Every structure is written in structure tokens, then in C-alpha cells.
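User: Can you predict the 3D structure for this chain?
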Amino acid sequence: MNHNEIKKMVLFAVMTAVAIILHFVEGLFPMPVAIPGIKLGLPNIVSIVALYLFGPYAAFVILILRVFITSFLYSGFSSLIFSLTGGLLSVMVMSLFWKFREKGFSIISASVAGGVFHNVGQIFAAVAVLRTSAVFSYLPVLIVAGVATGTITGIVSGIIVPRLSRIYHINK
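Assistant: Here is the predicted structure, written as C-alpha cells:
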């Protein structure tokens, strides 16, 4: 392994740790809405930042590590199913937006799409686990929540990415 590969691996580990901490902190402060299951998605900021700094591979690796670790530490197997399904679909969609960023897709639009598709993925997981399509009735509420939370995490990510990019390139 060369110096740059080691530096990148350490940065991925730090980003994973930050995502785990954000997951924990987010659990301490429930959303001030009477709709169960809606979260701001603070750990998703790390996925977006990883995607825009290092590409899809980094975003997927950090997401998978974060979901497995937080599920085992804090929430259990059912959380693993829902978080992994939503997260993987979210990062796939955000990666498409990232791929076409030169065509006008912004980090905020990628984050909004990621927020919406994270919730879509979780609904499909719920349909599979509960064996009922009744949970699709909850989808419109989750889409609105995904747009709102995706906008917030996209704005924050849009502030962080250029700053970390400058730092990373200076130290390269």
C-alpha cells in the first residue's frame, strides 16, 4: 500500500466513525413531528460527502460499515434490514446524480433524491417484512419528509464538501 491509499483508508475510517457518532446523536433528539420513523438523516451527510469527495465506492463502503455497526450497537436486526435497504437504494440514486453533476445536478438535488429513495427503500423492506402492501399508504408522508430532510442534509453537505476538498488536496 502506498501513502495515498493508506491516507484514504484512514479517512474512510474517520468518516465511518463520524457517521456512527451522528447516528447516536440523532437518536438523542427525536424529530418534533408526530410522525413515527422520521429522522433528519445526519449520518447521510457523511455518505454524500464521501460520494462527492471520493466517488460511489467510498459512499457504499462507509454506508455499509455504518449500518452494520450502528445496528449491532444500538438497534438490532430489524433496523439493519430497513437501514441497509433504504441506504443502499439512496446511495445508488445519489450516485446517478453524482455521475451527471456536470449536467446540472447539484449536491442538494442528489441529497433530496437520496432522502426520498431512502424512504422508498424502507417502505419496500416493510412490505417484504410485514407481508402487506398497506404500508404503501405511508409513502406520501415519507416522500415529503425525504424532500425536507434531503434538502437540509444537502445544504450542509454542500458546505462541507468544498472545505474538505480543499483540505484533502492541500495535504495530498
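The mean pLDDT is 92. The helical segments are 3-28, 42-54, 56-75, 77-99, 107-130, 139-171.
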